[in-house]
Amino acid sequence: MQPMIAHPAEALAGIVKVPGDKSISHRALLLAASAIGETPIHGLLESEDVLATAAALRALGVEIVRDDDGWRVSGRGVGGLSEADRVLDLGNSGTGVRLLMGLVASQPILTLFCGDASLSRRPMMRVIEPLGRMGAQVWARGGGRLPLCVRGSTEPLPIDYELPVASAQVKSAILLAGLCAPGWTTVTEPLPTRDHSERLLRHFGATVHAEPLPGGGRRITLEGQPELAASPVLVPGDISSAAFPMTAALLVPGSNVILSNVGMNPHRVGLLQTLQEMGARITAIGSREEGGEPVCDLGIEAGPLRGVDVPESRVPSMIDEFPILAVAAACASGTTTMRGLKELRVKESDRLAAIVEGLEACGISVRAGEDWLEIDGAGGPPPGGGVVRTCFDHRIAMSFLILGLAARQPVRIDDGAAIATSFPSFPIVMTELGAKIHGSNELSGD
Ligand code: S3P
Is 185 touching ligand 1 by the criterion CB < 6 Å? Predict the structure, then answer.
């Protein structure tokens, strides 16, 4: 356990570069491993989750090196993985394990997967089911949990699959399995989710079509058995990590911060839209395209926020940002309502429960149901002063440390260790901006 504390802050200022995008980093490694030739990757996120994916790929026979120039992956071509001689431990990473399950499901190898306590509680049936239809055999613990074993199909079938939940991980697992299947693999999503897999597949030479559907969903088709060719990847900054310094800068009076090189994938910008509706002063500077993804710098100025109703259709585009939005809502004037949050119950923790518990520990009025949340904002600094249980969830940990910067009293978290899964430099970045966030030996008293 690594207890941490965040103290009420003076105005934050400075320019910081947020680390590489986690979703894109996983996918860059997986697709570079499936291409022929050597792919250089710049800006790869060097966090525990991504390093676990790199280690798993190495165990599957892929040569991956990191030197002064960045990362280089020597791809084995589509279907070229070898059987690993050990269990692949994906640590805390749902993206890592689900995408890798897809990649191995259509190759004639047997792969064993395990993860940490949090990952071992998360549902894998959502990927086991479609991968089974493609011909893979999967043996999992009760309820479709890790540890599990995948025997990839020798003759994978392309499928036409309708996602029961809007999940980019499940969509990507099916598309990755579809790489080895003949013909067209099709996935229909009820609402659009992040399309990094589709963009990177095209970048490496695959044929992928995405067609919008009348109800707001999308139908994605991939032509199987392509020849993927190595091609350099530039990973933009992670908007889900940028969300923490961004919200801190909005909430701490007098702050003026620039976040450089932030990925602006249209299916990831839900928090930005919501904060702007709340009255946030956020300016996009120098919008450009880098490595097939839209990117810009963000200028952020502190100012009062007001509560809003977040439309349910926006949930997939800010699925990881509800903990930090809850913190912004706690400081806004009026009530913020969020609906359609069922998926939050099966993230790195039961995030809905963790948000409620943390807000209550910090003196904030909150109501919740099975899939909704209503937060009464303090219209300025909320009380704070609590000790928050993070349940080994990086986003809960960082969100409540940000609350400590904006509250009247410091906020403590019981364990900040999970921050290293996605944003290891978080304490350094926040300190550069003038925040006081550090380890704390005590869970009560100053
Ligand atoms: C991710 C998709 C989302 C998100 C996760 C990363 C991805 O999960 O919560 O942090 O990289 O595809 P779901 O696909 O389960 O919604």
Answer: no
